[in-house]
Amino acid sequence: MRAIVISKNGEPDVLQIRELPDPVPGDGDLLIRVRAFGVNHAETHMRKGEWAEAAQVSGIECVGTIAHDPSGGLAEGTTVAAIMGGMGRTRNGSYAEYVAAPITNVAKLDTTLSWPDLAAIPESYATAWSTLHGNLALQPEHTLLVRGATSALGQAAVNIAHALGATVVATTRRRERAELLRSLGADHVVIEDGSIADNVRELVPGGVDRVLDLVGNSVLRDSLRATRPDGRVCQAGFLGGLGPVDQFLPIADMPSGVQFSFFGSFEVGTEHFPIAAIPPPGHRLEGRGRRVQRQASARVSLRGDRRGAPGDGEQ
After folding, report:
1. How far is residue 302 CA from its own chain's centroid?
2. By CB distance 3.0 to 4.6 Å, which of 88, 212, 250, 282 could disulfide with 60?
3. Residue 193: how many other CB atoms lie within 10 Å
4. What is the pLDDT of residues 50-84, one digit of tens each?
C-alpha cells in the first residue's frame, strides 16, 4: 500500500509517500480501506518530534470502508469512521491506503457526504461533543467562551454549542475570520491577544459560565479570570504551544469556585468515553432544534482529491 511516512522529524517536507506492507488486523481490530482523513494539530507535534509517542505513519482519524473484519461483524464495503485508538501514536495511523484500527474506535456510518467532507467531522466533532457534554456539562442557558475557535475543533464546538442553544463567545487572532465564526453560530467574536478576560467580562458581566480553552497553558490564567464563580474551564488543546504554566499557584491563580479540567481526545473510544455515546452526523440537538452542520477543515483524500495539507493548525 501507499503511505505517507515521517522520514525524520521536521517540517511538512519530511513527509514522504512510500510503499509499505498492508497492515494485518489483530484480535479486536478492523482493517479499513482509507478514503480520506482529517489533518490534526497534534500530528504536527508528532511530525516535529515534540510528542512522547509517534508512529512512522501518522494520522489519528479517517473515514473509509471495511476491507476485512476478522470477527465477521461488519461486511466488506461498510462505511465507517475511525478515531484515535493509538493510531498515529502507538500503531501506524491513517495517512495510508489501509489502516488497522481497534473495533472500539470505529463507528459505522450512514451518510451521503462526500469522502473529503465526511473526513472533516470525526475527531473534531467527537472531541467537541465530549468536552461540551462531559467536562463542561453545557446547557442551553449557559454562555460559552471558545478560545482558538477557528481551529477545526473550535469550529465544531461553536457549531454544537449554538445548536444546543447556548450563547457563544468565540475568539480568533485574525479579524477576517470573524464572519466564519458568526456563520457557525457565534453570538460574539473577540480578537485573541492572550489577554481577553476584561473584554469578555464587558460582554458578559460577572463572567462566562463555561470556557473551552484550545489555546492552552499560555492563556490559562486569563481563561480562569474570564469565568464566573461556579463556572467551568476545560482545556482540550495547546495551539499556543506545549510549554508549562510558569509558577502556577492554585491559591493565587485559581478563582474560588471555578472548576478546571482537561480532556484528551486520545481517550475517545475508551471505556469511559465510548464512541457509541456520540451522536452521528446530522443529529438534531435539543435547544434551538438545529442540526449540527459540518465545518470545513483541512482534509486529504487518498483518491486524489486534495483539500489541505498536513501542516500546522491555527487559532
Report:
1. 21
2. 88
3. 11
4. 988 899 999 999 999 999 999 999 999 999 999 99
